Amino acid sequence: MSHSRTALRRLAGCLVGLLLSAACAGVSAQNPPPGQQTFDSVLNPNAAEQAKRQQQQPGNNAPVWREVRSEKEHYTTDRGVEAGVLIQSGGETWRQRRNNQLIPVGGALFLAALAACALFFWWRGPLRVKSPPTGRKMLRFNTFERAVHWTVAITFTILALTGLIMLFGKAVLLPVIGHTLFAWLTNLGKNVHNFVGPVFSVGVLLLFVTFVRDNLPSVKDAVWFAKGGGLFSDVHVPSGRFNGGEKVWFWIGVLVLGVTVSASGLFLNFPNFLQGRESMQWANIIHVVATVVMMSMAVGHIYIGTIGSEGALDGMKTGYVDEAWAREHHEYWYDEIKQKMPNRDTGSTGPVPAGALHAKETNT
Question: What is the CATH number of domain 90-362?
Answer without folding.
Answer: 1.20.950.20
